[in-house]
Amino acid sequence: MKNLTHLLDREKYRQLLIDQIGLPIKQKEIVINSIKTAWLSAGNFSDECDTVILLHGAGAGAVTWYPNIASIAQFYRVIVPDIVGYGESDKPDASYDQEYFSNWLNSFLEALNLTKVYLVGSSQGGAIAMRFTLEYSQKVEKLVLVNSTGLGAKPKFLPFLGMVWMNLLPSKLANKFSSRYLVVKSKNKSQYHGYYSIEVIKSLGGKNVFLQGKGAVVSKIPEYDLKKIKQKTLIIVGENDLFFSINYSELASKIIPNAKLRIIPSAGHMASIDQPKIFNEILIEFLKEN
């Protein structure tokens, strides 16, 4: 009965976030190599339409992009997966390192017959996006990194403490503590996002990424690899990121050959939630550039 209650709560909070997107959203699932991946999709579905893939950070799932999907979907087909280990996707016993996530993403795109995409990754999703771009370069048209991990920055002590607390003993109190280091003002982030994150971690296998991955996915990508990224790359950071120093993103913008940096004021680690209007404008302008 307790597990059923958690499942119903998880579904409720997820749907409440989907309702905030403000346009029709398709909710789908696919099983590839015995692993189920759930995803959201919106926007133009013609064969000629470019596709934007949004990769969320640690915790919750695809609904983390609830303030951004509608704006992007005005111009593009938007596909937002629950990364394996999160959301409604399966949470198997696995290594959960960069290579594992990169291979998962490749299998997902192949199953959807997507040969080339715009790839956007936030925080941990940024590290996955970079590794995928390095291993499957021909499949990435443009790359966007949002307060990305994998650039060498180490989490500051209190944010790290909040992350550990949230992943080991998820609760509303842990979420409240952790959230203060993710956004400038807690009211900027829907309370349902935190509640959904709690229920995802409490679900079967919900702690696997944290316990089995042991942080491997956010390990530093060497400078010589960053220099191999030839795609036009946009690096977006919140000026007030309390989780990671933005100095590493600034340095990466000078190392990646075709990269440029945009800093969003009054935004923290989750810049896409803190300042969605500014974030959406910056992202769409970059994607539209020839």
Topology, element by element:
Elements: H1 2-21, E1 26-32, E2 35-42, E3 51-55, H2 69-73, E4 77-81, H3 98-111, E5 117-122, H4 124-135, E6 140-146, H5 157-168, H6 172-179, H7 191-202, H8 208-213, H9 223-226, E7 232-238, H10 247-255, E8 259-264, H11 271-274, H12 276-288
Parallel strand pairs: 3-4, 3-5, 5-6, 6-7, 7-8
Antiparallel strand pairs: 1-2, 2-4
Describe the protein in words.
- The protein is of the alpha/beta class and about 290 residues long.
- The protein has one domain (about 1-290): 3-Layer(aba) Sandwich (Rossmann fold).
- The chain has 12 helices and 8 strands.
- It has helices at about 1-20, 70-75, 100-110, 125-135, 155-170, 170-180, 190-200, 210-215, 225, 245-255, 270-275, 275-290, and strands spanning about 25-30, 35-40, 50-55, 75-80, 115-120, 140-145, 230-240, 260-265.
- The protein has an 8-stranded mixed beta sheet with strand order 1-2-4-3-5-6-7-8, with helices on both faces.
- Helix 1 (about 1-20) packs antiparallel against helix 7 and helix 5 runs antiparallel to helix 6 (about 170-180).
- The longest helix has 20 residues, at about 1-20.
- The radius of gyration is 17 Å and the shape is globular.
